[in-house]
Design brief:
This protein is α/β, with parallel strands linked by helices. The chain has 18 helices and 21 strands. The C terminus is likely disordered.
Length: about 575
């Protein structure tokens, strides 16, 4: 490399989304028949390890914290995760036996073969991400691409400087700061976050704002148990989605699940050494997601197009939220011979979560059809076509139902939950859809309000673990970098009319370039430097699910940035060289 100043690319956050960006970017830069431009890639990560990030950190999770997608759907590209499992089968069985046994409880480790339909621990997927990050760095360096990783640093500020961008980073351990200058392109891949809690009463010592890391949860439970002494500790898990299930598994971790010869859960025995803990799970609807069953082939009759915009063009009319719900209802009824409609999604015809789980573990065909239809509706990206009032209604009242259907749970988790119910360890409540805070602090405990039949009831619990969906308002983002960029108007909260949808503005529906305010003209324009994808961006939570969405975004970014690098390296010939 003869250039003095290589094109400088920076990725903030090296969890799954940042790792996917690096993986595809390096592949794009080193693709066959393309000259490798002069490039330096910088990565910023507060943890000491790159790859796993927050949700897949191997040493912050339990084996029972499972991915909610099969191995064939969890990957940086194609079947790469499943292929990696097979390639390293013997080593993984030797180094991580507990992670393998979680998915294959009755298979001898020396006979284990990866299952593309298997649901593996998120910690194991984290190992894969860590190794793939390291492999990608080695590949980049073999091709002359400079890589510099700033681990143990947080990005806290950023600003324009001499037609490039500068980033202020701070060491986690001692607070010392450095400034990285001359950045050409910057990706914010900060992932999920725990929003700043605006209710001071919910920040007491017996309130935990997240079930992760598991070590923090267990330390908190030990302290809570000591506080109640010889009484039963009642822990309320707010949220019954995947994070809520992880919290429940952590609270029951020291007990023993029993398996049949075929590997199914048959019961649960609490540990005699553990503190007496009663788990109460609650959510607005009061139900866990359904079990992820087999994929089904279904010929759509109403949601016939791949995108909502295409459907409107085919029908020759503008569709509103009520029209969409009506079409979903018609599709559900057509698929299930009239057995299930939209109202059955809103209010499942079961007495409680236990009864619904008993139905779901049979993996009924109707559940698979419902999942297929609602996932298709969500992926058609109808949300972006709603007006501001309809978006507000959807976010407040409807998205929870789509999420509950679109993100099913592994059968193993459902069987464990049933065993916990049957052992008396677990209860559930339906909190309803009231706007007010629930639970609320009450005399050193918390009061949970829930529906009991047609009546409203309350009960007191000793501690609360929040595992509910996050708040997407930009003002509640805990990152100092995001706050600083928002204050400088390098990021703009997405507003449509009277309504703030959450997340930041993007320059188009199919782009991940962010919008900013030009300090000279005051106009809102595309940022020359910053891109973002994941939950920080507008509509992400309403339109996208699963690892495939991050991979799709990473591939878009890699092509954009690789083309930019080529132009910077040789402006006169880059376009023809890139296209050839």
């Amino acid at each position: 490399m003869s250039e003095v100043n290589p094109t400088r690319l920076c990725i903030v956050g090296t969890g799954f989304s940042g790792t996917a960006a690096l993986f595809h970017l390096v592949n794009a830069l080193t693709a066959d028949r393309r000259p490798v431009p002069s490039v330096e890639i910088l990565t910023i990560e507060s943890r000491q390890v790159n790859g796993p990030g927050y949700p897949y950190a191997p040493y912050e999770l339990l084996p029972g914290h499972l991915c909610n997608n099969q191995a064939r759907q969890m990957s940086l590209a194609g079947d790469d995760f499943y292929d990696w499992l097979g390639e390293h089968r013997q080593r993984l069985a030797a180094e991580f036996p507990a992670l393998i046994r979680e998915t294959h409880p009755v298979v001898p480790l020396d006979a284990w073969e990866p299952d593309p339909e298997g649901f593996y621990p998120r910690a194991l997927f984290g190992v894969y991400l860590e190794e793939r990050f390291r492999d990608t760095v080695m590949k980049a360096r073999r091709h002359g691409i400079r890589i510099q990783s700033y681990n143990g640093y947080c990005a806290i500020d950023g600003y324009r400087q001499s037609e490039r961008f500068s980033l202020v980073i701070e060491r986690v351990d001692d607070g010392s700061r450095e400034v990285i200058t001359g950045i050409d392109k910057l990706l914010l891949s900060t992932g999920h976050w725990v929003p700043l809690d605006t209710e001071s009463e919910m920040t007491a010592g017996n309130f935990l704002d997240s079930p992760y890391p598991d070590s923090k949860l267990r330390a908190s439970v030990a302290a809570w148990s000591e506080a109640v002494r010889d009484k039963t500790l009642t822990c309320f898990v707010k949220g019954m989605g995947p994070s809520g299930i992880d919290a429940i598994m952590s609270l029951a971790e020291s007990g023993t699940f029993h398996f049949s010869d075929s590997g199914h859960i048959t019961g649960y025995t609490p540990s005699p050494e553990e503190a007496q803990i009663q788990i109460v799970a609650g959510s607005r609807c009061g139900f866990f997601p359904a079990v992820r069953g087999a994929s089904v082939e279904y010929q759509f009759q109403y949601l016939t197009e791949e995108t909502f915009g295409e459907l409107e063009r085919v029908l020759g009319q503008k569709l509103g939220l009520n029209d969409i719900l009506s079409m979903i209802d018609q599709e559900l009824r057509a698929a299930t011979s009239g057995q299930i409609g939209w109202q059955d999604i809103v209010e499942p015809k079961f007495e409680n979560a236990f009864e619904k789980l008993r139905y779901d573990v049979t993996c009924p065909h109707e559940n698979n059809l419902v999942h297929t239809i609602l996932l298709k509706a969500r992926r058609m990206k109808f949300y972006r076509h709603l007006n501001a009032f309809e978006k507000e209604i959807y976010d407040r009242e409807l998205d929870t139902h789509f999420i509950r259907i679109a993100v099913p749970i592994p059968l193993l988790n459902a069987e464990k939950l049933l065993a916990l119910f049957e052992s008396g360890k677990l209860e559930s409540v339906k909190m309803g859809y009231q706007i007010s805070g629930n639970p609320v602090a009450h005399g050193g405990q918390y009061q949970v309000t829930f529906t009991d039949g047609d009546a409203e009831s309350t009960r007191l619990v000793d501690a609360v673990i929040r595992a509910s969906g996050q708040d997407f308002r930009l003002s509640l983002h805990p990152s100092r970098l995001v706050s600083a960029l928002a204050e400088r108007e390098e990021l703009l909260a997405n507003r449509e009319g009277h309504y703030s949808t959450g997340g930041i503005m993007l320059d188009s529906d199919e782009s991940y370039g962010v919008m900013c305010r030009d300090p000279e003209t005051g106009r809102v324009v595309p940022s020359p430097w910053i891109a973002s994808y994941g939950v920080l961006t507008r509509y992400w939570q309403n339109e996208r699910n699963f690892s495939a969405a991050f991979v799709e975004a990473a591939m878009w970014l890699s092509e954009e940035w690789a083309a930019y690098c080529a132009r910077q390296s040789s402006p006169l010939v880059a376009e023809s060289a890139w296209q050839n």
